[in-house]
Each structure stands twice: as C-alpha cells, then as structure tokens.
Amino acid sequence: MGPSSARNEQPTDRNPEPDPLGHDPDPEPREECGVFGVWAPGEDVANLTYYGLYALQHRGQEAAGIAVSDGRRMVVFKDLGLVSQVFDEQVLSSLKGHLAVGHCRYSTTGSTTWENAQPTFRTTATGSGIALGHNGNLVNSAELRDEVAAARAEERADRGAIPASTDSDLVAELLAVTAADTGVEEAAMRLLPRVRGAFSLVFADEQTLYAARDPHGVRPLVLGRLERGWVVASETAALDIVGASVVREVEPGELLAIDAGGLRSSRFAAPEPKGCVFEYVYLARPDTSIAGRSVHAARVEIGRRLAEEHPVDADLVIPVPESGTPAAIGYAQGSGIPYGQGLVKNQYVGRTFIQPSQTIRQLGIRLKLNPLRDVIRGKRLVVVDDSIVRGNTQRALVRMLREAGAVEVHVRIASPPVQWPCFYGIDFATRAELVASGLDTEGVRRSIGADTLGYVSVDGMVGASEQPRSRLCTACFTGEYPIPLPEEARLGKHLLEDLAVPENASGAASGDPGPLSVGYGAADALGRP
C-alpha cells in the first residue's frame, strides 16, 4: 500500500465571491455537510459518489471533494464551489478505484478556504493514507487541538502546521497518529469515545471504508446495499439516486467497517439517541426518510397541526417555496382553506463567482422570490414558511405581498421560535441575532409587519416526527442541550483559527458578552452564501 496521494492544487486564495443572496440579511439556516461513501469493486465509484453528492448538495454548497482508492494508493480531488463546478467528466474519469469517500461542505467550524474543503487527507507513519469526511460539529475541538499539539511535540520530525482549521482535520490527524501503532479500525475505536459533539463520519484507508455516528445520532447517516457493494450516506435520497437499497441507519455509537471480508459492526459507545428535529423541519430533503419517517409526511403533518393550533379566516394558503411547501399543503388540508402558488422562486439564484453590484444587492428577496400578482391581489393570505431566524426575510416578504395587493398577510411558521444557537452543526447566528430570542410572538409579529403570526408548538413539531421527544434534540427551540458544552472561551466557529497555540481553558476574553452568545454564524453570518 503506497502512500501516494494527489490533491487538486488550486491557489488557496481562490475564494468565491459572495453571491447576490449572500447579502440577504436573513439567510436560511444552513447545515454543515453531506457525506457519502461507497465500497464497490467493479463499479465506477467516482461517478457514484458524484451523483450521491449531487443528491446531498442542499446540505453544503461551499466546497466539494472525492477521495478514491484502488487498493494501493489514494487520490483526493477537492475544490471550492458546487459539486457540478468542482467535477467534470475528465476529473471523474481520472479517479479510479474500488472505494470512495465524498463530501459537500457548508462550514460551521473554520472559514471557507480550499484547505478546509473535505475529504481531509492524512498519511500515517506507516505510509497509509486516510481520507475523512465529517457532517456535524464537535464541542471539544479545543481539547482535541491540545491533544494534537501534544502528539506532535512527541514526534522527532517537524511535520509543519496543520493547514486547515476544522474539527474534522483534528479527528483525521488523531486517527493518523493512533493508526500508526494500531491500524485504522482500532484507532477509531480508541479515538471516537473521546470525540464529543455531533459527528457522522465517512472515512477510508486504501482497503477499507468506515462509517461512524456519534452516540447521540444527532446527524443522520444511513447504510445502503448495491448489487456489488455497499454505500453510506447522509440521507436515503442519496442512496436512491445511485440505485442502492436502504438497509438501515448507522446506529448511534456504531462504527462500520466494509472491505473484502464483508461488513463489520463495532460499538464504541452506548447509544443515547438525540436526533436533530430540525432535519424534519428544514434540513433534509423531503424525499428522505429519517428513523423510518418520511420527511415530507412529517412536514405535511406539521402543517396540519399548525392549522389546528393557529386557525385564521383567510382565502388562500401559499408556501414560501420550496421549504415551506409541504407544511403549506398540510395547513390547507387541516384548515379547509384552498392551497395555491403565490410566489415563484428563481431556481438558479445561488452561489456565483461574480461580485454583485450594490444595485443587485438591494434587490434582496426579489432575486429569489417574486409574487404572482393576479393570484395575490385582493386576497387574505396565509403564508407558510419553515422558520424565522432573524426575521428580515419575512419582513421583506410581507411588504412585497402587500405591495402586490394582498389585503391581509397571516404568517404561519412550521417550527417553534428559534431562540438558541446550535453547536451541533447548524449555522445559526449568535443568540443576540435571533429575533425570537429578544421578542415574544407579538413582538416578532410587529417586527415583520404581519396581521397575525403563529408558530407550531414544540409538542406539535415533535409529534409530527413520530419520534419520542426523549430521542430528539430540540436545543435551538428550548435551550436544552443534550451534549454538555464547554465554557464559551472554547467554543465558536473560528476557534481553531484563533488558537495559534494551544489555549489555556481559563483564557476567556474580558468583557463576557453573556451566556451562549457565540454561534457558528457569528461575525460573517449576514454575508454567507
């Protein structure tokens, strides 16, 4: 097994310019990443991974990468941009092998740089390669960073600085260090119990594909079967696109290993399920199933419950496309008010390498949504959206609908008020920027200019998922964090960039801004794509 690896050596300063919607003052909540892995001798694994990542593109649009092994060497190709921008037929045809790891990224730890694109790659002291993709966010990154520094201090040769600044790179580094003595599988069994937070990992050496899920199962990860191999992916929709049948979910606290000897399962921790309820609300594709429950069906049921909890006299129910559509259908079914399309979404507005002018930025929400005036004029509208984060999008939307002739605008939200930042892989902003953290429902209603405002209850949302509340994480709505958080000085999106040297845990900044003020949208949240 040779240690050969190749990377797409693009200039590291080639950062895409912000897209027009990057200046939208209320970007949607973003999830960190999508992961995909395949072990299938005789199949075109690079193409399968490309299609799998394409199905997971909604989970991350900043960067994409694929690592492929032919049993002797591993090649990694990654770059900033969408999956379709990073890969073409020429690149994919050069990635030959029997196993692959793929990743599409939206950053919640570390900046948007080429180095932080995944899969991240490390070479062990014995010359074997390790490629790793991570979905989620760790809460003990500072502790792991100290562990990496200590391990490097024990080495005789200076391996240079870690070029990336993500929690994922710390895991890959520690895996590589430990695997030199034990092999990758045993290294993972030793390391993963020390990793705290949300992680769905897909990683590989030259021979074996691995998948692991944190003991709480915060982020989804599923196992699928091909005629000549196995697939693991963030969502069942990615299995569908490559023709794989769903076998089961990777269990919380489980490590899977897949190679020529078959599939092996090991437990590195006792399961304590706390799946992210926001996957049902917004993050996952509607054609995905989580814990046996159709995401689309859950969203329709949320809409029905929303109609029961917050009825109103109106003429038409319209969604904010696309994420509000299933709940709007449910609201119409539950209320008996006709469902209609009142907003048209521009499907092609997204990430671009063109710097928008100030004029284009000022178009704001109209770049993304435009009203159907003949449908809206003279109507009392129920407008259904998935969530309110800062409230600026809803404020602009209500104003736009009134200008288009709506006589009443009643806003209904298919999730409870988002009041707390997420530390497990959703890119919300700081608590101070969350509108519902400082205002009650009536205050938010006045802020966005709606005639009425109603959120689904936590119980209604949880009930629609058909999961026991004890098995779900609702921290962003309730502030009840299932995985303990460290002190604030060792949290934050750019923590690892700020830690030039291992930081003393007591080195908190002066002028503490208050409990849980940090988040993973933080300083640049308003300029994110």
UniProtKB/TrEMBL annotation:
PROSITE patterns given in the database record: GATASE_TYPE_2 (PS51278)
Record-listed Mg(2+) binding positions: 323, 385-386
Ranges for region Disordered: 1-31
CDD domains assigned: GPATase_N (cd00715), PRTases_typeI (cd06223)
Domain (Glutamine amidotransferase type-2): residue spans on this chain: 33-261
Cofactor(s) this protein requires: Mg(2+); [4Fe-4S] cluster
GO biological process: 'de novo' IMP biosynthetic process; purine nucleobase biosynthetic process
Keyword Chaperone: no
Annotated positions binding [4Fe-4S] cluster: 276, 422, 473, 476
Gene Ontology MF term list: 4 iron, 4 sulfur cluster binding; amidophosphoribosyltransferase activity; magnesium ion binding
PANTHER family from the UniProt entry: AMIDOPHOSPHORIBOSYLTRANSFERASE
Functional note: Catalyzes the formation of phosphoribosylamine from phosphoribosylpyrophosphate (PRPP) and glutamine.
UniProt similarity note: In the C-terminal section; belongs to the purine/pyrimidine phosphoribosyltransferase family.
The protein, known as: Amidophosphoribosyltransferase
